Amino acid sequence: MSNGVLIGLNGVVNSGLSGLAVYLYWGGALVVYSGLYLNVFQGLLCMALTGYFFDALLPVTSGQSLVLFAVGYGLLAAFRNVFQKCNFFQAACLAVVLNALLGIAQIFLLGQPHWHACGYWTRTVGDLIFSTLTIFPVALWFFELQSWFLKKASQ
């Protein structure tokens, strides 16, 4: 449920920033919490639903974000023992790194016909920088929201 809240918030913020020609990508925060705290079945199911829901906002083929989120989840799940005791600050740092990696993957997957254009690289790298700057506070808030949802669900 909280992934849907963040996707909706990301869509609203991007809609508001459209006049400035800025697009923020917060996919890393969607993957980190699931990768660290959910078991494999729950995590992959969450990534499948999140990926399809995220793709609904983008002009991409259905399932592209699903694959990227599943790969990101797999990387985090593989190193779960290393990050098991991580607090929300450290998880937000992981979200920054994963968001940058997922953003770079999106740039290369979506922009193949436009790689020769200088404007494409200026725009996408600028968007990636703005996304990286904004993901940390968003991830901290988002992890608190997910923790709150889980506490309410367990009561």
Question: What is this entry, summarized?
Answer:
Helix content is 79%, strand content 0%. With 155 residues, it is mainly alpha-helical. Helix 2 packs across helix 6.
Annotation keywords:
155 residues, mainly alpha, 7 helices
What do these coordinates show?
This protein has 155 residues and is mostly helical. The protein has one domain (2-154). It has seven helices and no strands. Helix 2 packs across helix 4 (64-78), helix 2 (27-37) packs across helix 6 and helix 6 (88-110) crosses helix 7. The protein is globular. It starts with a helix and ends with a helix.
What's the structural blueprint in terms of helices and strands?
Layout: H1 2-17, H2 27-37, H3 40-55, H4 64-78, H5 80-83, H6 88-110, H7 118-154
**Rg (C-alpha, Å):** 15 Å
Chain-averaged pLDDT: 87
- Write the element-wise H/E pattern from the N-terminal end onward: HHHHHHH
How does the helix and strand content classify structurally? mainly alpha
Find the count of extended strands (DSSP E, 2+ residues).
Answer: 0
User: End-to-end distance, in Å?
Assistant: 16 Å
- Describe the global form: globular
Determine the number of helices (DSSP H or I, runs of at least 4 residues). Answer: 7
**Uncertain segments:** none
Query: Can you tell me the number of structural domains?
Result: 1
Instruction: Summarize the main sheet.
Output: none
The portion of residues assigned to helices is: over 70%
Proportion of residues in β-strands: under 5%
